[in-house]
Amino acid sequence: MLVSVSDEDWRAIDALGLRVDANLEALDTRLMQGGEPTFISLANPDAPEWNTTAIGPGKRRLAEKLLRRLAPRFAPGALLHYGQGKWYPGEALPRWSLGVFWRKDGVALWSDDSLAADGMRDCGFGLEQARGLVEAIAAGTGLSPDFIIPAFEDPWPVIHEASRLPVDVDPLQHDLRDAGERARLARLLHGDLAQPAGLALPLRPGKPGKHRWISSRWPLNRARLYLIPGSSPSGYRLPLDTLPEAAADQVVRTALCIEPRAGVLHVFMPPLEELDDYIALLGAVERAAASHRLPVCVEGFDPPADPRLNVLRITPDPGVIEVNLPPAASWSELASNTRVLDEEARAVGLTTVKYSFDGRPLATGGGNHVTLGSPSWAESPFLKRPDLLQSLLTYWQHHPALSYMFSGLFVGPTSQAPRIDEARDDLLCELAIAFQQLDAARQPVGAMLEPRIIDGLLRHLLVDVTGNAHRAEFCIDKLFAPGSPGGQLGVLELRAFEMPPDWRMGMIHSLLVRALVARFWKTPYRGEFRRWGGALHDRFMLPHFLNADLREVLHELAAAGCRFDPNWFMPFFEFRFPLIGSVRHDAIEIELRQALEPWLALGEQAASGASSRPVDSSLERIQVMARGLDLARHWIACNGRRLPLQPTGERGESVGGVRFRAWNLSQMLHPTIRAHTPLVFDVVEAGSGSIVAGCRYHLARPDGGDYERRPADAREAATRRAERFEARGPEGQRIAPTAYREGPNPTLTLDLRWRAE
User: Fold this and answer.
1) pTM
2) Three-state secondary-structure class, residue 371
3) Which of 15, 53, 608, 696 could form a cystine bridge with 726, CB 3.0-4.6 A?
4) Cis? peptide before 744, omega within 30° of 0
């Protein structure tokens, strides 16, 4: 069974959360905290959309179900918004973004839930209903219906000069390898090209004291308004570039669009700069929908960013659905938001855990990033007190457990959240200089700095190996990014947090972060950066050293007056580093646990069109813990090679690791090295070379067959794990320690890829 947080422990955790909150309030930090939990499908975990790709039909359906359940739980009177998200290279279309927007003062943005259409359910509406709706919106905004323009799909951009009519569609002239183009072509061939695809109403806000809304006719170059070819909503495909620039003051260049798609009326909101204008236009849309009893889906541009609004977003990421929770002003609010999300996600068929075919428990594979900020950028604790950011960066660099204990399987220099000291040691020197400059700029002590100085000193250092600021462990691309209002929020994002299987576990690491913020706000943390070198990936890939490092963090917090029970973190330890098995012989015990392995990114494969980075996931690492072993009398071999064990400091206890190729994949580093399975461990008597005990670890079924499906539940998963571990007693064989080469430096880990010599 998966380890979770008990009710008794949760009551103690919640009580500590309230005490930390009281401390944060007394210090006037004005801290607000959000999160980005991720989920996968319970029913179909093997589909590409729940493993590698960002877009998929099942993902959109579950996201829309979740959207409609979350809205009334978070804010009655909220606007359900169907927007457009990020567009990444290799993806045919931008990703979708579903939003719940609501006013903090409780005033409804959208009053009647029955008028918010289910985007996945055919209502049977078409052009006739669209025309009635847009005419009612025009009347509600004081505009003449004469300004309404029918918008047609353009089957082919070449127009017969004589007839001014579209030519026939020639499929061979289109790129049929592109999925989006195939879908568009099918829609054109099955539709009536003589009928409008939708209707556009040009409008923009009027000047204060005059008309609320103004419109204009569009001087078109062609007889009709033809949309730019594509599969996006019509509002994104208006040919605005063809409108005359010289008449910019007279020609309104934004439009509200109504488009019937799959029997649903979609209302495309134009870009507006002021929230009050957006609310006024939205009100006109709802009144028009109510007058005709026509449920609609509101899409297009988001409401303008405004401190009066809260927003919750649901977006697709490779393999997962991501939910961006609104920032919470207190521990209780954060815990309530997280609990409600977990309840509703599970109610629609989403989950936070799956099992590998061999029975190992896995999380979603997505993040559970922690976002820290304030009600406004001017109040941000990291802009008011840049020494707080310095303290957190330094402390995280000193304690690798904070980077690795709560992260996902993919760690290391090419991961989604690399530490600043992974792959590029020179950045530590540059960051130390940046810290000196920050201190010098805050003279006299405590002086406020311009946000642009803080950003300028850190932006180019908090990056991954490619220079990507968004993929750094400490992401500041929303702190005060130049030239980007959406990036000037005063927000710090901590990315080295994976989605845990239990929402209470996520709250524990959130509380740990809150406690460290309170500690360093009161007493800044200073110190030289530690040059871990090879020890970073040698020692701290092993669970023993991570656990010891985390306990040091907890000990220091307790000394500062904030006591965490180390047992609260045992669910993380057991989930991240599951027990493989153990064997005893007399006083000797050998225990195997899963460890971490920093997978490296493979070379780019431009033709693949994949949404996620290809990595060498064929490598694995396990920890070997020996208790009651006298290193002068016994040694341990793995596949006949001696393990480099190190005493832990506890009497008779020593630890080491084994790095090995677990699987043969089509793409991996060193493809000539085959899988090192099974792994055979022997406890060997030093004098005689006799094997006194041992075990065998199979990566797949011991009989050589394959598992045809994932385990159905935790019980079946545990059974599979148990059958892959075999304990062995004394054997008559003898073994001699072989000479081996473990690489250029001494190490705690036996790397079986190095050939024995």
Assistant:
1) 0.90
2) strand
3) 696
4) no
